[in-house]
């Protein structure tokens, strides 16, 4: 594979520019690396914009509500079901060892420490991430992103990018609170009732 | 329909857009092959050409959405290529851009669509002033009663008008119209043409109108240029431009009007 490169004149700038474009390895490989570089630039710019003013706090609050609070129902239902399944499946084994009274602690710790954040993050990534992706894609196709740029509005600042990220963390927190309130409370009471019944039986 | 009278205000001879030797390629496809264009203050210039000939690319380069490969581009006495982000934003505030598909923010109402560029660019602007500016822009396009509507509730022509109103709200010196009459019926197209002329008269804007609608070009523009195979043919008035032996230009004319 011949490398056609003039080291005297070739610069990164020229590589992107159309009529001075030179093939380094092959067109497809060059395109791949340019794509990786573009994605890298995008990610770097995203993180740069997140921490550089101006900040649009009202937009953060609005978006957090849209994608955080509105996800609570789904997260709480998921947590609720996981709590039930966890209890139902682990109870017989614990009973064999006479450790059924430890069930509330087991479920509580397992969900709050380990499963809760992971599941909340996954659900949010699926639900909220796909919503944001679809919205941004639609905005790009219908030239709404360009409309922002020509109005001197930085599209990285406004629509969903970092507010989405903030909302995500908020969502995890809210989801965990709800997990705790709904799932653990319910299971704790249920488990205690069962233990009392067993105690009376024996 | 009565032909609107065009107001030629190029009396100062001031050039607001000067393009020289502009090249632009996408991969191996060379779209613009060294074009030259000057637009004077208060002048309306139509850029005609087939779909995919690079008309929209040209105005996207002017507003800094795309970067040219070669050539010089001077807009409002600024070299667009030399501007940093902040300077480019300042320049963009002086340019209005009407998109082909209107590009209204579909999650916002008409009022919010118009207020958004104002709120984001002018800090601590009192609410009353925002409302007054939005009202003025909506009045200019004749849609004062649609402020609370969502874009999905508007017709194609109304969306175009709102798109123009949004561009006008920052009081631009240059207006760039990307196919303003595309997909509209002849009556609505005529209304949009009238609006373009009204905007030019009221705000004394210089405009580049990208179109392949000859009626639009004829009724709104002082001068017409035609983009053929990446290069401009000599510009001129509507009647002059089609007195040519170039077969592509003749075909363009013949297919646009019912013979």
CATH architecture of the largest domain in chain B: 3-Layer(aba) Sandwich
In CATH terms, the superfamily of the largest domain in chain B is P-loop containing nucleotide triphosphate hydrolases
Largest sheet descriptor of chain B: 6 strands, mixed
Rounded radius of gyration of chain B (Å): 18 Å
Large-scale geometry of chain A: elongated
- Quote the distance from N terminus to C terminus of chain A: 82 Å
Q: How many domains, in number, for the residues of chain B?
A: 2
Figure out the total of helices of chain B.
Answer: 9
Instruction: Work out the number of β strands of chain A.
Output: 0
Count of helical stretches of chain A: 7
Largest interface: which pair?
A-B, 18 and 32 residues
Distance between the termini of chain B: 19 Å
> Cα-atom Rg of chain A, whole angstroms?
26 Å
In N-to-C order, the SSE pattern of chain B is EEEHEEHEHHHEHEHEEHH
Unreliably modeled segments of chain B: 1-11
Q: What share of the residues of chain B lie within helices? A: 25-40%
- Assign the CATH topology of the largest domain in chain B: Rossmann fold
Classify the secondary structure makeup of chain A into a structural class. Answer: mainly alpha
Number of strands of chain B: 10
Please state the average pLDDT score of chain B.
Answer: 86
């Amino acid at each position: 594979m011949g490398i056609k490169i003039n080291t005297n004149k070739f610069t990164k700038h020229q590589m992107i520019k159309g009529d001075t474009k030179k093939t380094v390895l092959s067109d497809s490989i060059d395109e791949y690396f340019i794509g990786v570089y573009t994605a890298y630039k995008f990610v770097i710019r995203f993180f740069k914009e997140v921490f550089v003013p101006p900040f649009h706090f009202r937009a953060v609050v609005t978006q957090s509500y849209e994608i955080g609070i509105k996800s609570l129902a789904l997260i709480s239902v998921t947590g609720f079901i996981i709590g039930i399944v966890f209890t139902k499946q682990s109870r017989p084994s614990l009973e064999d060892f006479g450790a059924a009274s430890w069930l509330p602690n087991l479920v509580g710790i397992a969900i709050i420490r380990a499963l809760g954040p992971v599941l909340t993050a996954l659900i949010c990534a699926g639900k909220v991430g796909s919503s944001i992706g679809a919205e941004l894609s639609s905005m790009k196709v219908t030239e709404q992103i360009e409309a922002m740029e020509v109005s001197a509005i930085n599209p990285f600042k406004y629509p969903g990018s970092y507010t989405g990220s903030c909302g995500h963390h908020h969502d995890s927190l809210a989801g965990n609170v709800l997990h705790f309130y709904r799932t653990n409370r319910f299971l704790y009471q249920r488990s205690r009732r069962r233990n009392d019944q067993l105690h009376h039986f024996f | 329909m009565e032909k609107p009278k065009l107001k030629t205000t190029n009396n100062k001879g001031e050039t607001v857009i000067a393009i020289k030797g502009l090249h632009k390629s996408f991969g191996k496809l060379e779209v613009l092959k060294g074009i030259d264009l000057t637009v004077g203050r208060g002048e309306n210039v139509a850029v005609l050409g087939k779909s995919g000939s690079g008309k929209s690319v040209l105005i996207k380069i002017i507003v800094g959405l795309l970067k040219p490969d070669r050539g010089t581009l001077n807009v409002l006495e600024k070299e667009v290529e030399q501007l940093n982000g902040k300077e480019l934003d300042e320049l963009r505030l002086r340019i209005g851009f009407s998109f082909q598909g209107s590009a209204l923010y579909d999650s916002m109402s008409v009022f919010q669509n118009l207020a958004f560029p104002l709120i984001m660019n002018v800090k601590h602007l009192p609410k009353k002033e925002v409302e007054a500016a939005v009202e003025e822009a909506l009045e200019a396009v004749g849609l004062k009663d649609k402020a609370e509507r969502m874009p999905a509730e508007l017709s194609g022509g109304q969306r175009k008008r709102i798109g123009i109103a949004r561009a006008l709200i920052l009081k631009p010196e240059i207006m760039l119209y990307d196919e303003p009459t595309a997909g509209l019926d002849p009556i609505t197209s005529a209304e949009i043409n009238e609006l373009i002329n009204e905007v030019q008269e009221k705000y004394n804007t210089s405009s580049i109108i990208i179109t392949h609608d000859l009626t639009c070009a004829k009724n709104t523009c002082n001068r017409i240029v035609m983009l053929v195979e990446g290069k401009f043919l000599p510009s001129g008035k509507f009647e002059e431009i089609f007195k040519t032996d170039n077969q592509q230009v003749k075909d363009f004319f013949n297919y646009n009007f019912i013979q």
